[in-house]
Amino acid sequence: MAKNVQAPTISIGITEADRLKISRGLSHLLADTYTLYLTTHNFHWNVTGPMFTSLHAMFMTQYTELWNAVDPIAERIRSLGHAAPGSYAQFGKLSSLDDVPATPSKAMDMVRILVTGHEAVARTARGVFPLADKANDEPTADLLTQRLTVHEQTAWMLRSLLE
Predict the structure, then answer these.
(1) How far apart are CA 13 and CA 143, in angstroms?
(2) How do residues 111-146 score in pLDDT, each as one tens digit?
(3) Residue of 157, 149, 38 lying closest to 98 (CA atoms)
(4) Is the CB of residue 133 less than 8 Å from the CB of residue 25?
(5) Is 98 helix (H, G, I), strand (E, B) or coil?
(6) Cβ contact 151:121 at 8 Å
(7) CATH number 1.20.1260.10 given to 16-161
């Protein structure tokens, strides 16, 4: 007969209250990142027009980067002792991004939507940063800094296509 084994208390130098606040913020970041991934992948599939080849390739690079970002965010939430959201219903409630339009957009509208998306994800990441900083949560701060760099640079590159 198995004994009831209680999980050990997490003692990493960050209070439970701070770990919960940071995990909630990271859950929003995860939802935003996954939503932007799905939007970017959709645009990769559905882009048309004279810039098809370059946008198709660029969107693939971007959705691949986003796909590679979701796991470290989710694993950081788990490292802080909380469950990572992982359903479309949860992501829909947590994300600050709108869902992709049902009818494929024109190529430059796709670019505009992605600019807005990357800027929104940057704002979400930036909003979590003070929580991580206050709690001396360097791993989360490092993750957020990396994500901010990617989203701000990608938004700039996409905006450059619109000028």
Answers:
(1) 18
(2) 999 999 999 999 999 999 999 999 999 999 999 999
(3) 38
(4) no
(5) coil
(6) yes
(7) yes
**Digit-coded pLDDT (tens) for 44-70:** 999 999 999 999 999 999 999 999 999
Instruction: Tell if the pTM clears 0.70, that is, is over it.
Output: yes
Residues recorded for the chain: 163
49: left (phi over 0), alpha (psi -120 to 50) or beta: left
Give the span between the Cα atoms of 74 and 77, in whole angstroms. Answer: 5
The candidate with the shortest Cα–Cα distance to 59, out of 145, 157, 126, 148, is 157
Alpha-carbon distance 8 to 31, whole Å?
29
**What residue spans of the chain are helical by DSSP H?**
16-46, 52-79, 88-94, 107-134, 138-161
The letter for the amino acid at 7 is A
Question: Helices 107-134 and 52-79, interaxial angle, to 10°?
Answer: 20
Per the CB < 8 A criterion, the answer to whether 61 and 128 are in contact is: no
Q: Is 63 exposed, middle or buried (0-12, 13-18, 19+ CB in 10 A)?
A: buried
